[in-house]
Design a protein that fits this description.
Layout: H1 2-14, H2 40-74, H3 83-96, H4 105-124, H5 131-142, H6 150-172, H7 182-194
Length: 203
């Protein structure tokens, strides 16, 4: 599959940078059929890595992606718990996802998902400065790197739903928690709107 991304990136750079809106110019079996390349931006990344370093460039991209994924996972931990526990969980996650550590759209999706979880954890701990613009911006970028960008928007939706449920449980127990921020609810909507920030918004 990396070869497909390389050729796709080469073709786009030679024909205006943006993906083709008509038929697939690189496919023999899909000739004449329409194509929607929603992960077009990562095609450029893979193509440039190949142009700069060949197999070494692709290996470097793979190592960089896997390293970022592992680093971001180790930063997801509950305060008060030993850090070795989060490291063990991160190690298991890295092993489970190791087959996806190839320079394809899945690698970009894993890294961005791990970064998204870091942002949500920081918000849960009260350290999430600028979350309300960072999440839609991240989602807009994701929608051009990986066809499965909708996963990020669903994760944000579930986080907001969980925050609402947690608040209601505190109210039932007699506590007086802060009201669920209206901006968090609006951010969920913006994340889904950000999925349309793509050359193929309704694909």
């Amino acid at each position: 599959r990396p070869l497909v991304l390389i050729r796709s990136g080469d073709y786009m750079r030679a024909n205006g940078l943006l993906p083709t809106r008509g038929t697939d110019p690189l496919s023999f079996t899909m000739e004449g059929r329409p194509i929607t390349n929603t992960g077009w931006l990562f095609d450029h990344v893979v193509s440039l890595a190949w142009s700069l370093g060949g197999y070494y460039g692709l290996t470097g991209l793979k190592v960089l992606g896997a390293g970022l994924f592992a680093f971001l996972l180790t930063r997801i931990s509950i305060p008060g718990l030993p850090t070795w526990w989060s490291s063990v969980c991160a190690a298991f996650a890295v092993v489970a996802c190791s087959q996806d550590f190839v320079p394809t759209h899945e690698l970009a999706g894993l890294v961005l998902l791990a970064y998204l979880l870091n942002l949500l954890l920081a918000h849960r701990l009260g350290r999430g400065e600028g979350l309300y613009w960072k999440l839609p911006a991240l989602q807009a970028l994701w929608s051009n790197l990986d066809p499965r960008a909708w996963i990020g928007a669903v994760v944000v939706l579930l986080y907001a739903f969980g925050s609402l449920r947690h608040r209601r449980s505190l109210v039932r127990s007699g506590a007086n928690p802060d009201r669920l921020p209206t901006r968090l609810v609006a951010t969920v909507g913006l994340c889904f709107v950000a999925l349309l920030a793509n050359p193929f918004p309704f694909a």
